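Ops channel
N.P.: pipeline sanity check, posting one input/output pair.
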C-alpha cells in the first residue's frame, strides 16, 4: 500500500492518479526524444529539442512512479505502429508552430509566463479596445494570441491554440473554453490514434496551463481588474519583498531583534527547556524561534515548528535525548494535552509541560466535538454494526476518550485520512465509517471518493490504494458518514468570494490548500493538482510541495543556463537581445496559500535557504487570498465595531486587516487564528522566566494555571491516547491493528 503519511511524501494521496500517468510517461521519454530529433531538419529546432530532452530527464526524476517502463507493448507490431503514429504526430506538431504569432522578446516577462511548463513559455492575448460603452460589445471584442516557447514541440502546441482560437471573442474565451475538452479536441487534430499518448505526455499539463493563462488574461482585459488583488511576499535568494500592507505586517518580523533571540537562547539553556510550536504561530514568534535555531546550535534541537501531531513526537525527543526537564507548547490547548499525554506514554511523567496563558487557548473545531450534537452523532455511530469512528487529530483528549467509549475510534491527520478510510474498508468490506468533526474535510473526502468512483479508471484507483476499484470505492461512499457541524474559524474564511477572485486572477498559479478548507477552495486546488499545479494536504504537505516546485525551477534554470552558455559561448545570463539565442528569463513561481497565514515564516525561510544555496535567480511569490488589501483606514467620526471613533484616531492605519469580511478573522486579522496568537513572544518569555523561580504562587499568571493536568492511571489521558496509538500502528504497519479490528467486530 502506498504510505502517503510517510515523512517523505510531498503531496496528499488525493491526486495520485498523476503518479500513474508519470510512470507511463517515463517509458516513452527516450523514444519520443529520438522521434523529435529525427523529424526536425532545422538546426535551431534540433537545439531546442536537445534542451527539451534534458529538461524532460530532470522533470521526470522529480516525479513519482520512477519505473524504467511501466507500459510495454503487447507485440512488436503494435509497438512499431505506435512509434510510426507518434512520428507523424510529432511532424504535425512541428508544422503547427508556423501558425504561432511570435511574442516579442520584450514581452516575454513574468506577467505573460506560463507556470508549470517544463520549457520557457509565454502567452499574451490582445484585443482592440471597443469604441462602444456597451458591456455586450466589450465582451464581443475579438482576440489575438501571441506566444513563444524555447521548445519547438511546445511552439507546435501554441500554434494549434492560435488556430483554434482564431476569431474568438473575450466572451467565448471566458465562457466557452473548457480546458479538458479543448485539450482533447486540439490533440485530436494532431493524431486521433496518438491521443492517449499525448494525454499522458508532460506537455499536456503545459498545454492546460497555457489555456488557464489565456483565460485569466481574458478576464483581466474584460473586467479591467487589478492583476494581483491579493497581498503577497516575493521570496528571493537575498530576502523577501512584501506587496500590500498585510504582507508588510507578515514580513516585519522575518528579521527578528537580536536581543530577543539572545534572551530566548539564554533562557532555554538555563531552564533546561524545549519549545514545540505549531506552524500557525505569529510571525514575530516564529521569526525569533527560527533565528535562535540558526544562530545557536546548542538550541537547535530544543526548538521545533511543525504540524500538531509531530509536536508531541518532538517533545518526547527533547525530553529523552536533550534531557529537557520542561517543554513549552506554543499552540492551542488540545495540543498541550496531546504533548502531555504522549510524553507520559513514552515514560517521562516527571517532565513539565506548559502552555502560554492562564486562560483557555481554545479551538473552534475542537469545541465542535464537545457539543451534544457530536455526542448524538457518536451514539448513532455506536449503534451500527462494524462501525469505526475516524476522528481528526485536532481534538482534545477528553473528546477522543469519550468517543472511544461509544464507538471504536482511530485518529487521523489531513495527510493520512484518505488511506485510513480506504484501508479500513479493505480490511472490513462492510465497515461503517463515521468521520468527524471537521465538516469541510469530511465533505472534501466524499468529493474525492466520488471523483474516483465515477471518473477514475480502476488502474488509477489502485495507484491510490492497491485493494480498491470503482466498485469498492462506491461501496465505501455508501457506508460512510461525516459530521456536518464543525469547522475551523480560519479555514471557514476561504469561501465563495475569495475563490472567485482566485479563479479570476490566479487560475494559472500553483494552488496550495489545506484539506480542511471549504469545497470551493478544495475544488480549485484539486483542479490544479490534476495538471500538476496544486496540492491539498497538511501544512507540512504544503511546505514540501512548494519546496519541490522551487527545486524543479532551480534545475530548469541550471539546464537553461548551461544550454544558453554552450550555444552562445556566453555566460552573461542576464543579457537579452535578439542576437543571443534563447537567454534564460528568471522565473517567478506563484503559490496561492489556502491556509493560515502564520506558516509563511517557515515557507520564506525554507525557500530562501534553497535559493541562496543554489545561487538561483528563481523567485517565489506567496499569495495570501484575503478579501481586500488588508488595511483599514479609520476616518473622522467613523463607526468601528459599533463604536464611534474620535477625531484623534482619524486616518489611523490598523494592521493586519479589516474588522470582518471573507478571508479575515474578527480577532486575529486576515486568515489568522486568534487563539494561536495568544502564544505571544511576551507570554513565552514570561513563562520561561517563571520556571523554577520560586515565586510561582505570587504571580497572577502562576505556573499552576498554565500547566496541563498530569494524568495518572487508566483515565482520560490514557483512554484519549488509544485512538492516537491506533493511528501510530497504522502509520507503522500500513494496516489497522488486530486489537482495533477485534474491537470493531466485537461491539
Amino acid at each position: 500500500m502506498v504510505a502517503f503519511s510517510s515523512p517523505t511524501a510531498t503531496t496528499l494521496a488525493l491526486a495520485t492518479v498523476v503518479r500513474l500517468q508519470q510512470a507511463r510517461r517515463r517509458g516513452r521519454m527516450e523514444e519520443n526524444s529520438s522521434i523529435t530529433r529525427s523529424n526536425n531538419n532545422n538546426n535551431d529546432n534540433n537545439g531546442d529539442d536537445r534542451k527539451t530532452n534534458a529538461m524532460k530527464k530532470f522533470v521526470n526524476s522529480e516525479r513519482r512512479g520512477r519505473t524504467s517502463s511501466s507500459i510495454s507493448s503487447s507485440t512488436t507490431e503494435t509497438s512499431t505502429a505506435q512509434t510510426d503514429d507518434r512520428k507523424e504526430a510529432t511532424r504535425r506538431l512541428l508544422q503547427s508552430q508556423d501558425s504561432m504569432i511570435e511574442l516579442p522578446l520584450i514581452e516575454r516577462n513574468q506577467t505573460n509566463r506560463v507556470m508549470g511548463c517544463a520549457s520557457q513559455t509565454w502567452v499574451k492575448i490582445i484585443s482592440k479596445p471597443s469604441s462602444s460603452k456597451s458591456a455586450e460589445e466589450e465582451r464581443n471584442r475579438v482576440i489575438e494570441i501571441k506566444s513563444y516557447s524555447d521548445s519547438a514541440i511546445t511552439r507546435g502546441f501554441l500554434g494549434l491554440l492560435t488556430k483554434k482560437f482564431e476569431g474568438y471573442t473575450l466572451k467565448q474565451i471566458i465562457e466557452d473554453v473548457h480546458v479538458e475538452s479543448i485539450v482533447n479536441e486540439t490533440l485530436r487534430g494532431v493524431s486521433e490514434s496518438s491521443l492517449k499518448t499525448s494525454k499522458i505526455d508532460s506537455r499536456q499539463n503545459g498545454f492546460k496551463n497555457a489555456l488557464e493563462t489565456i483565460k485569466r488574461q481574458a478576464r483581466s482585459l474584460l473586467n479591467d481588474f487589478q492583476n494581483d488583488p491579493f497581498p503577497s511576499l516575493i521570496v528571493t535568494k537575498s530576502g523577501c519583498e512584501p506587496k500590500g500592507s498585510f504582507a508588510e505586517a507578515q514580513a516585519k518580523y522575518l528579521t527578528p531583534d537580536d536581543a530577543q533571540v539572545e534572551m530566548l537562547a539564554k533562557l532555554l539553556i538555563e531552564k533546561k527547556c524545549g519549545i514545540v510550536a505549531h506552524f500557525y504561530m505569529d510571525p514575530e514568534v516564529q521569526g525569533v524561534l527560527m533565528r535562535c535555531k540558526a544562530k545557536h546550535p546548542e538550541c537547535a534541537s530544543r526548538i521545533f515548528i511543525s504540524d500538531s501531531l509531530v509536536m508531541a513526537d518532538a517533545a518526547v525527543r527533547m525530553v529523552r535525548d536533550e534531557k529537557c526537564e520542561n517543554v513549552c507548547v506554543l499552540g492551542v490547548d488540545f495540543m498541550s494535552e496531546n504533548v502531555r499525554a504522549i510524553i507520559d506514554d513514552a515514560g517521562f511523567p516527571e517532565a513539565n509541560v506548559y502552555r502560554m496563558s492562564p486562560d483557555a487557548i481554545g479551538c473552534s473545531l475542537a469545541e465542535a466535538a464537545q457539543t451534544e450534537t457530536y455526542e448524538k452523532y457518536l451514539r448513532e455511530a455506536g449503534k451500527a454494526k462494524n462501525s469505526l469512528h475516524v476522528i481528526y487529530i485536532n481534538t482534545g483528549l477528553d473528546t477522543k476518550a469519550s468517543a472511544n467509549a461509544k464507538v471504536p475510534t482511530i485518529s487521523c491527520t489531513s495527510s493520512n485520512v484518505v488511506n485510513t478510510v480506504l484501508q479500513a474498508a479493505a480490511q472490513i468490506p462492510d465497515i461503517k465509517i463515521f468521520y468527524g468533526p471537521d465538516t469541510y474535510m469530511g465533505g472534501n473526502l466524499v468529493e474525492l471518493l466520488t471523483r474516483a468512483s465515477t471518473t477514475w479508471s480502476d488502474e488509477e484507483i489502485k495507484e491510490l490504494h492497491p485493494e480498491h476499484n470503482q466498485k469498492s470505492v462506491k461501496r465505501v461512499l455508501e457506508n460512510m458518514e461525516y459530521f456536518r457541524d464543525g469547522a475551523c474559524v480560519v479555514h471557514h474564511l476561504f469561501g465563495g468570494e475569495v475563490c472567485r477572485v482566485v479563479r479570476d486572477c490566479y487560475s494559472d498559479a500553483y494552488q496550495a490548500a489545506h484539506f480542511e478548507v471549504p469545497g470551493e477552495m478544495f475544488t480549485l486546488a484539486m483542479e490544479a493538482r490534476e495538471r500538476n499545479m496544486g496540492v491539498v494536504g497538511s501544512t507540512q504537505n504544503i511546505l514540501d510541495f512548494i519546496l519541490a516546485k522551487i527545486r524543479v525551477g532551480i534545475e530548469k534554470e541550471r539546464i537553461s543556463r548551461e544550454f544558453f552558455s554552450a550555444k552562445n559561448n556566453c555566460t552573461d545570463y542576464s543579457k537579452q537581445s535578439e542576437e543571443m539565442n534563447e537567454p534564460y528569463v528568471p522565473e517567478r513561481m506563484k503559490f496561492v496559500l489556502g491556509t493560515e497565514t502564520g506558516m509563511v515564516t517557515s515557507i520564506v525561510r525554507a525557500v530562501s535557504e534553497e535559493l541562496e544555496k543554489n545561487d538561483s535567480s528563481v523567485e517565489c511569490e506567496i499569495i495570501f487570498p484575503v478579501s481586500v488589501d488588508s488595511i483599514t483606514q479609520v476616518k473622522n467620526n467613523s463607526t468601528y465595531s459599533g463604536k464611534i471613533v474620535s477625531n484623534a484616531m482619524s486616518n489611523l492605519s490598523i494592521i493586519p486587516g479589516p474588522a470582518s469580511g471573507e478571508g479575515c478573522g474578527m480577532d486575529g486579522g486576515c486568515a489568522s487564528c486568534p487563539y494561536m496568537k495568544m502564544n505571544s513572544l511576551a507570554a513565552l518569555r514570561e513563562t520561561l522566566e517563571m520556571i523554577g523561580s520560586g515565586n510561582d504562587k505570587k504571580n497572577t499568571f502562576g505556573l499552576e494555571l498554565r500547566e496541563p493536568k498530569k494524568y495518572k492511571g487508566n483515565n482520560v489521558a490514557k483512554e484519549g491516547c488509544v485512538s492516537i496509538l491506533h493511528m501510530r500502528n497504522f502509520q507503522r504497519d500500513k494496516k489497522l491493528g488486530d486489537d482495533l479490528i477485534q474491537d470493531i467486530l466485537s461491539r
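N.P.: looks fine end to end. The chain has four domains: 13-223, 230-254+491-672, 258-363+678-706, 365-489+713-746.
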